[in-house]
Amino acid sequence: MHVLRHTAASAWLAAGVDIRTVAEYLGHSDPGFTLRVYAHLMPDASDRARTAMDQFFAESPSALDVPSGGAR
């Protein structure tokens, strides 16, 4: 049973499910506990965070594109 839980947590985290949801699915009352136990399963989290920010700025209008003559 333990292996099945670990496998499920691995699959959810690899798919990008947030730690709070994984904790809920596993029956943990504290997401911090889940994070401490399963953090090693998220080695690419930093890369995903950078990619998300890159995509955000690529899709967002530039902060320098302020309409001229508009109200302040």
Explain this structure:
With 72 residues, this protein is an all-alpha fold. It has one domain. Helix content is 61%, strand content 0%. The chain contains four helices and no strands. Helix 2 crosses helix 3. The radius of gyration is 19 Å and the shape is elongated. It starts with a helix and ends in a 13-residue tail after the last helix.
Mean pLDDT across every amino acid position:
82
How is the biggest beta sheet arranged? none
Strand content: under 5%
Number of helices: 4
Alpha-carbon distance between the two ends: 61 Å
Keywords, separated by commas or semicolons:
72 residues, mainly alpha, 4 helices
Present the secondary structure layout.
Layout: H1 2-14, H2 19-26, H3 31-38, H4 45-59
Helix pairs in contact: 2-3
Short description:
The chain has 4 helices and no strands.
